[in-house]
């Protein structure tokens, strides 16, 4: 009887554990295919915060609510739909002075609220940030640049990964004078797309806020495949 020889070729430095969980007793090739697509961002999400400190809790609350209400009204007038604006509840905390000797002394209260905005018309992003500055918002937490048709770009990256796995398997089989058989197992875990994140900043950013125009979003995917080999 002809002795069966197992052929295992690692194409990448890492093969997912579930692909190699059980030893295979037939000739095979294990490949990992990678694919990526570059997309130009056409939408954004950003988060801004207003912080106020006052002698009393009520004063701090009123100061924060006044700024947030004005900003929300301005966003709606600028055409941002209500479902694309989300404001957090008020966070209020007492502020103390701690002398070296003696008990802590209450000095006032700090209040803050956060507003998250989805921007579907990317060229208007700067307008909404300028509006925040004008209305008294004093902190930008982050700006994330994204694409609306993310699913389409993910499919393109996935197909590129599949083609990469196939091409590697064909090349390896040919190089070892063997014939590539059918696919025996596919292992796939969709990676999360990472948006382009602009650095957090205070609202002194007129030179910084245009940098998103030159940004690009890279969407990546991978697939692990086991192919049978024929002698």
Automatic annotation (TrEMBL):
Entry keyword annotation includes Signal: yes
Keyword vocabulary terms for this entry: Signal
Highest taxon of source: Bacteria
Organism lineage: Bacteria, Pseudomonadati, Pseudomonadota, Gammaproteobacteria, Vibrionales
Signal in keyword set: yes
InterPro entries per the UniProt record, alphabetical: 26kDa_periplasmic_antigen, SIMPL/DUF541
Designated name of the protein: Oxidative stress defense protein
Organism: Vibrio marisflavi CECT 7928
Signal peptide: 1-21
């Amino acid at each position: 009887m002809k002795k069966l020889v197992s052929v295992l070729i690692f194409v990448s430095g890492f093969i997912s554990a579930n692909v190699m969980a059980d030893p295979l007793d037939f000739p095979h090739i294990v490949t990992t295919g990678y694919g990526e697509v570059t997309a130009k961002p056409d939408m954004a999400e950003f988060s801004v915060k207003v912080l106020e400190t006052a002698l009393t809790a009520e004063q701090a609350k009123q100061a924060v609510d006044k700024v947030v209400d004005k900003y929300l009204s301005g966003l709606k007038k600028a055409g941002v739909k209500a479902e694309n604006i989300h404001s957090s509840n008020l966070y209020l905390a007492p502020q103390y002075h701690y002398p070296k000797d003696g008990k802590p002394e209450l000095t006032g209260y700090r209040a803050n609220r956060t507003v998250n905005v989805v921007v579907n018309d990317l060229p208007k992003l700067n307008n909404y940030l300028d509006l925040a500055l004008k209305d008294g918002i004093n902190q930008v937490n982050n700006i994330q640049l994204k694409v609306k048709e993310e699913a389409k770009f993910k499919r393109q990256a996935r197909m590129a990964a599949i083609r990469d796995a196939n091409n590697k398997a064909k090349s390896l089989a040919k190089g070892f004078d063997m014939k590539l058989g059918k696919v025996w197992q596919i292992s796939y875990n969709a990676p999360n797309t990472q948006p382009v994140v602009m650095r957090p900043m205070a609202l002194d950013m007129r030179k910084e806020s245009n940098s998103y125009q030159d940004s690009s979003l890279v969407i990546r995917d991978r697939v692990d495949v086991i192919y049978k080999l024929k002698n």
